[in-house]
Amino acid sequence: MENKKIMILAGEASGDMYGAHLVQAMKAQAPQLEFFGMGGPQMAAAGVIQAVDAATVSVVGISEVFSHLPAILRAARILKKTLLTKKPDLLILIDFPDFNFHIAKFAKKLNIKIFYYISPQVWAWRKGRIKTIRKLIDKMMVILPFEVDFYQKNNVRVCFEGHPLIDIVKADTHTLLDSSKRPLIGLLPGSRHGEINRLFPTLLAAAQQLKHHYPEAQFVVPLAPTVTKAMLTPYLSPLRSLPIQFIENQTYTVLSTCDVVIAASGTVTLEAALLETPMVIIYRLKPLSYYLGKYLVKLPFFGLCNLIANEKIVPELLQAEANPHTITYEVRRILDNDAVRQKMKHQFAALKQQLGQTGVTTRIASAALEMILL
């Protein structure tokens, strides 16, 4: 592995987390590797030299892509130039499909091997992209068990070593807040600016209603690496009496401690499931993105734990359903009914069994390193 170089690209907070753990696992096996590319603070801390900060390109929904197009195109130009000048031995792409496919096409012309880590959801929508994957990607590393059959049927070289969260998520129940005041309710509005704008005011309104039903309730917001307290406090100005705390760098402690969480759809919902924390999943898109998605995406669920289990383990509220009244109803149904909580926890435990054995990230690192040696 002497003088071997790897470009790695992640475009959002979850990809930054997965990328950081992968880089650490690869360096543990080959310390002399050089990493560079696009990511966030966790990948930077793992030693990835940042040609582009992922925060400049991380958006949700078609309409938001248009408004951020100049920054996205600028990032693509920088990364193409980096591919030309650095000539990496391997390109690792993490989710973030449309942007990463664009870079992959350029890398393919340079005969650079491409390892795709965390499949785009081509099985859910725009299945025609499978042709692009078959043409461009040398190996697809999936993290959801049902994805294997889909890729095998489409003649894509696919590998499943388990879900990396099996290794990453660790329960931590040391005291964060006054444990005598219950319930403890987690509010997780997402990791992107657009998500926060659409969801955090609704979460706070629901918290106000829940405080009426549970006078001793405490509310806690675990801050994602891409989110600061300063970004969220302006939403609190009319709600100074609401007992809410912001906790940095302790997401798993918060999730382990909470009686229930209300979470934006995303990786954190699967993290909560692995910690067997009851939850309500919510999400809102801009109207144009939602209606286009409704036309294109044909899935029975949008929450990760529900998708993997292929049944509705936890309530999920989308668009207009994600309102304070309905959120409050679903949270109360969980808090006031022990049978509901226990059934949810039992289903979470069964879900964990589908996601593989420990050592996932180490096995994925080995698979990526093999490509350099081929």
Salient structural properties:
374 residues, alpha/beta, Rossmann fold, 2 domains, 7-stranded parallel sheet, 6-stranded parallel sheet, 17 helices, 13 strands, 17% strand
CATH superfamily of the largest domain: Glycogen Phosphorylase B
> If you consult CATH, what is the topology of the largest domain?
Rossmann fold
CATH second-level architecture of the largest domain: 3-Layer(aba) Sandwich
Strand percentage: 15-25%
Radius of gyration: 21 Å
Distance N terminus to C terminus?
A: 12 Å
Secondary-structure element series: EHEHEHHEHEHEHEHEHEHEHEHEHHEHHH
As residue ranges, the low-confidence spans are: none
Q: Give the tally of β-strands.
A: 13
What fraction, in percent, of the residue positions are helical?
40-55%
The total tally of domains equals 2
Q: For the record, what CATH class of the largest domain applies?
A: Alpha Beta
Our count of helices gives 17
Structural class of the helix and strand makeup?
alpha/beta
Shape: globular
Spatial arrangement of strands, main beta sheet: 3-2-1-4-5-6-7
Give the averaged pLDDT, no decimals. Answer: 90
* Main pleated-sheet profile: 7 strands, parallel
List the helices and strands and how they pair.
Blueprint: E1 5-10, H1 13-29, E2 34-39, H2 41-45, E3 49-53, H3 62-67, H4 69-86, E4 90-94, H5 97-109, E5 113-117, H6 129-136, E6 139-142, H7 147-153, E7 158-160, H8 165-168, E8 184-188, H9 193-213, E9 218-223, H10 229-232, E10 244-248, H11 251-257, E11 260-264, H12 267-274, E12 279-283, H13 287-296, H14 304-309, E13 316-318, H15 324-335, H16 338-353, H17 360-373
Parallel strand pairs: 1-2, 1-4, 2-3, 4-5, 5-6, 6-7, 8-9, 8-11, 9-10, 11-12, 12-13
Helix pairs in contact: 1-17, 4-5, 9-15
